[in-house]
Amino acid sequence: MLPDVARKGDGNPEGKGLNGFLLDWNQSRPVGVVAxxxxxxxxxxxxxxxxxxxxxxxxxxxxxxxxxxxVDEQWSLSLIAPYEWSKERQxxxxxxxxxxxxxxxxxxxxxxxxxxxxVSVAVSEHYDAFVEHLETEQTLxxxxxxxxxxLPYYPRLYAAAVSRSLRGTVSLGDLGGTRSRDWLALLxxxxxxxxxxxxx
Length: 200
Description:
- By secondary structure, the protein is an alpha+beta fold.
- Helices cover 40% and strands 12% of the residues.
- The protein has helices spanning 18-27, 38-52, 87-91, 118-134, 140-143, 153-172, 180-184, 190-193, and strands at 65-71, 74-78, 93-99, 105-109.
- Helix 2 packs antiparallel against helix 6.
- The longest helix is centred in the C-terminal third of the chain and has 20 residues, at 153-172.
- The termini are far apart.
């Protein structure tokens, strides 16, 4: 039973027709997928799902810098830099995010993530949820986000792209078939998943 999957006849309230979806699916195809160390796979999974839990209604482009915020108890991804926002937005700034060509995301974290703040607490909660997500006998490949109906169109599309990428990485690295619970033992502490900002 797949309760989150739209039923036939539901239509598409976001106006994405089949041809548009196929084009978007092709444009979100991971490129340059390679084998990576286990810890890097987990870090990229964690970071990518943090970014994709944010609300955004645009198609992200590879290599472009976007800005992640925690405001009003939710994540949002924006084209607007913190210095262009209000003080409230600046206080919720988490870091600059870049989509890589293999469809994983990197974050250059803001200093607020390394201090006691609302945004650092929100990241800690995401980390705890990620740990819980890995607490299963299923393989990592089985729990990757192939289709997350709760997400808006573009985050959902790019979450599926992350899955395609990480599945290829796991296969190339001969890591397939490993229980998620065993991957959990390799998970770095939160502070190592998002590195400290470079010193000025």
